[in-house]
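Bug #2210: C-alpha cell dump truncated for Alginate lyase?
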Amino acid sequence: MLRALPLTALLLAGSALSAPAAAAPVAPASAVVSAETAPVLTTPQEWRRMAEAGSAYPLFAVERERVEALVRAAMAQGVNVPTPRDPGGGYTHEQHKRNYQAIYNAGALYRLTGDKAYADFARDLLLEYAELYPTLGKHPAGRGEIPGRLFWQTLNDSVWLVYSIQGYDAIRETLTAEERRRIDDDVFRRMAGFLSHETPNNFERIHNHATWAVAAVGMTGYVLRDRDLSDKALTGLKKDGSAGFLTQVDQLFSPDGYYEEGPYYQRYALAPFIIFAGAIDRNEPGRGIFQRRDGVLLKAVDTLIQSSYGGYFIPINDAILDKGLDTEELVTGVASVYARTQDAGLLSIAQRQGRTILSPEGLKVAEAAASGAARPYAFRSVLLSDGPDGTRGALAIIRARGEDGQALVQKATAMGMGHGHFDKLNWLFYDNGQTVVTDYGAARFLNIEAKAGGIYLPENTSWAKATVAHNTLVVNERDQFGGHWQTGENHAPQVLFFDKAEGTQIVSARQAGAYEGVTFTRTQALVEHPELERPVVIDLLRISGERPARYDLPLHYNGHIMKLGFEAERAVAERPVLGASDGYQHLWVDAVSKPSQDSRSLTWLLDGRFYTWRFASSVPAQAILAESGANDPDFNLRREPALILRADGQKDATFVGVLEPHGRYDGRAETVVGADSAIRDLRSVRGADAEVVVVTLASGKTVVLGVADDPSPRAAHVVTANGRTWRWTGPWARLDQ
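Reproduced locally. Full output below:
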C-alpha cells in the first residue's frame, strides 16, 4: 500500500519545515473544538506553551529540527503501509517501525507548527492502517506462543501502539467524524483488543512485554475516552489488581528502583513505564502514580544511570553491549524525572545525550539547561537491592576516582526471569574508561537478518548464559541451577554486608542452591594503599561442599597478555576443546599449568594501562588459559580470552585474587612506565570462623583484609598463622602491618 502525497501537501510541508527555528509558530486551530477530541496525553495548553517557547532553547530547537528532517523524508517517500511478512530487521518490519515514528512525530510537529500537512500525513498513514489491520491474522513469520499481527512478535505491536496513539492524540480533533470512526474502530480499538482480552497470557504477565501492552492499551483508553480499557490496563482484565500496570510497578522494581531483569531491560522497559505514568498523571492525577512506592519510578531513572560506566549500561543478563545513556528510553526518562524533581545532575546527562524530547518535560529540561543550571551527575558507590521488597539480593557498584575511574560490580541479584544468566556472584571491573573484567552479555545481533533474523542466537543458551562464560564458580562443569532459570528464581543470593571506610569499600554475598550441597561466599573489596598507584580489587571466594567436586573459577579479561607468571604447557600445534557441554564446548584450551597452591600471576595490557591478576588457592589448582569460539560453525561468537582456576576432588576450597591496575604504555612516545606489578605475593589464611587475605607489596609492607564467616557486627574473630595473630570485631577489618 504505497502512494505518494499530493504535491500541495509536500509543498506545504516543505514551506513549514524550511521556516527558521527561531520563528514562533502559531498554535493550530481545532477543526472541531470538543472535549471528546482534544488531546489528553499532552494537553492543548502544554502544546501551546511548547509552540510559543520551544525555539528559544537549543536542546528543544535542535530536537525539533531533527524530527522535522525525519518526517520530511517520510513525507517525501509517501504513504507506505505494506502487508506484514518479514521477521525483525526485514523490510516490512522496519517500514512499520518507520511508520509509527512518523505518526508520533508528525502529530507533535502539527501541534508545534500549526501546519496541517503534518496532521494530514499522519491521518493518511492511519487510514491505510484502517484498511489493512482488519484483514490481518497471525504474522506469517510469527515467533513464540503469541505472534503479533503487524510484527512477528506481540511486543512490537505494543510498541507500535504506544507511539502511534500519541501521534493520533495530537491530530484526532482535525479529522472528520467518519475518519475518526474508522481509525478509532479499525486501528486502535482492534489493536487494543488484540493486545488485551485476545492475548491475556501476555497482557497479564509481570514482564516487560506486558508493560508495553498495558501502556499501549491504557493510553488508547484515555484517547478514545474508554474508561474500561484504561482501567483494565491499570488493574488487569478482571479489574481486581491481580495484574496490570500498577501491579507491575509494585512487583518489577525493588524499593531502590532496580528492575528485575537488569539494566539492559530496565532501559527497554523504562519507556512504557514513564510514558504511561505521564498519561496517568495527566488523566488521573489522584492516583499519584509518581509518588507510588516512595517514588519508585523516579528512582528507577537514577538507578539506571548509576548502572552504567563510560556511558554504557553494565551488561548483565541478556544485554547488548552498545546500549547506553543516549538511548531513546533514557532521554524520555531523564526529561520526565527532571520535570518532577529539578535534579540538576540530570541536566548534565541530558547535555551528554545532546537532545531532549518534544514534550512539556523536554521543554523544562531545555529551559533549565539553557539557563546554566546543570550540575555534574553524582556517580557513586551504591547497593541496589533486588526484588519487590528488596530482599532478593542486590547489585553492588563500588566506585573510586570519578566517573571514569575504577568501578567494581558484584552481581548478587535474583535470577532476572528468562533473561537471567546462570552467574550468581559474578563480577565485572572497569578502569580508565575500559571494561577490564568482562561479561559477554547476549549472543545476539539485534535485527540483523543474516544472524538468525536478529533474534537470540543458539549460542545465547549454549554460551552467553552458561556459568563458565562468567566470572563465578562452576561446579563439575555444569551450569548453576542445572540450567533452569525457573529453579534459579527460587534461590536468590544473600547480601551479607556492604560497607565503606577510608581506603576500603567492600561487599560480601552468599549463594546456596545453585549446586546441590554447595554454598559459596564471595567477598570483594576496592582497596587503596599509599604504595599502590591505583585502587586494587581483592577477591575472596570461599566454597563449602558436602562431597568432593571439581571447582572452576573463570576470569574473563579484556586485553593482550604481556606476561605469564607461571609455568604452563602450551597447546601450540592444535587447540583442544575444554569440555562437552554447558559452555565448555565453546572454549579452546591454549595452555594448562600443573596444580599448585602458590601465588601466580597474569599481566595484560589494555588501552595503555597494565593489569596484573595475582591468584592463589587453599588447595592445589591448575591455571587454564582459554578462548571462546570453539564449536561455532556459523562464527556467531566473539573470540575472548579467559583464565580458569581449577581445583579437582575438593569439598572445601578458597580462591583468592588481587587485580592491580598499574603503569602506562605510550605508543606514540614509545615510553613504558610501571610495567611491573607492585605486589610481590598473595596468600589467604584460614581461621576457625574467618579468613585473612595478606597482600605483600614490593617494599615488604602488607595490605591485610580480615573477613568473617558471620556478618554479625559484634562477633569477635581471631586468626593465627606462622606466629602472627590477627584480631578484629565485626564482619571485616583492614589489618595492614
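Output looks complete on our side. The CA atoms of residues 51 and 112 lie 4 Å apart. Marking as cannot-reproduce; reopen if the truncation happens again.
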